[in-house]
Amino acid sequence: DIQMTQSPSSLSASVGDRVTIACQASQDISKYLNWYQQKPGKAPKLLIHGASNLETGVPSRFSGSGSGTDFTFTISSLQPEDIATYFCQQYDDVPLTFGPGTKMDIK
Amino acid sequence: EVQLVQSGGGLVQPGGSLRLSCVASGFTFSIHRMHWVRQAPGEGLVWVSRIKSDGISTDYADFVKGRFTISRDNGKNTLYLQMNSLRAEDTAVYYCTRSSMDVWGQGTTVIVSS
Description:
Order of helices and strands of chain A: EEEEEEEEEEE
Number of strands of chain A: 11
Structural class of chain B: mainly beta
Number of strands of chain B: 10
Distance between the termini of chain A: 37 Å
Largest sheet of chain B: 6 strands, mixed
Number of helices of chain B: 0
Shape of chain B: globular
Number of helices of chain A: 0
Largest interface: A-B, 20 and 18 residues
Radius of gyration of chain B: 13 Å
Largest sheet of chain A: 7 strands, mixed
Structural class of chain A: mainly beta
Oligomer: heterodimer
Order of helices and strands of chain B: EEEEEEEEEE
Strand content of chain A: over 45%
Distance between the termini of chain B: 39 Å
Helix content of chain B: under 10%
């Protein structure tokens, strides 16, 4: 199985800050990586697919990059509505696997 | 509107069974692979199972193999998860999602407890 790690596990930042989350796969997954936002009591929301492709309707302050084993998710200017937990997920092969999540809050 | 509407969760005793349903609308269900993903209370997301569009090819996480069965009825635009021999550790919110993982059901809670 492909293992996914994420760092940091939690992040506290101010409104307007640039924040970055790292995600690493245990083997080469090319660009088969999704990023999700999940708010309490809600289903995950897909933000980015294919490592760097923004879903329709997702604000452009969200971005993703990387390929192979190392990936990055960035919010260029943190907004109050971005408070959530963020997960990466590989879809190179089953079992699909998710990172453990990064819980983001506002300072 | 593209959506997945789930039903079928609830409280069940250890060793019991439940069947979850997920009804698709607003898109061509029959061409999509479908997945079940679960999330235990306070925990992360864990993939459970996948079924290909033909309904024949299926995959399962090791921890549900032999206990859970994924199936679909393309005529009814419905995905199912039959869960047998339930354990306390199966307690979670279960989500259905389509292959591109851009559309998710609202989630249904399964609690396994005596």
